[in-house]
Predict the 3D structure of the following.
Amino acid sequence: MIVQSLAFYLFAAVTLASGVMVISARNPVHSVLFLILAFFNSAGLFVLLGAEFLAMILVVVYVGAVAVLFLFVVMMLDINFAELRQGFMTYLPVGALVGLILVVELLLVVGGWAVHPTAAMMSGAPTAPGSLTNTEAIGQVLYTRYFYLFQAAGLILLVAMVGAIVLTLRHREVRRQSIGRQVSRRAGDTLEVKDVPTGSGI
């Protein structure tokens, strides 16, 4: 029990520190690397909760695909981040207002959860009925109760993928090779012999 508590505090502290460094690092590549570190520690927290499948999905999907894609995009784009930071003070009041609203909403949610009479019963980790594993229980809920929402999410991702392809598609005129025309060509069609008088050449 002590080892689990120490692991929880370690993962939680590293996750919070990585989240702060994501938004405070000057180098965008370092921000993405700190984001990957935050994902790894969040996966560790899922393992402590007994949700090994979610931890694996977090590592495979977010660390193995999304964060690495972010890293490649940031490294390939030539963005002048110094120029982008010049307008920071212009949007600071609006950003502070939005942040204040989010903090108030979080306090209302946490306060309502704390004073709710059934909060203690709802805070327990859900247990799979019978002898089902964690992955089987998630699959049954996902493909029965939330089946239509799951399909709708797939359609939205499909539309987003097609839209990205259409927006980035460039029509280029490609010169195609005609094997028949090349084979049927004669020497007289391609070569021209000229008799240049002596002394009149270039």
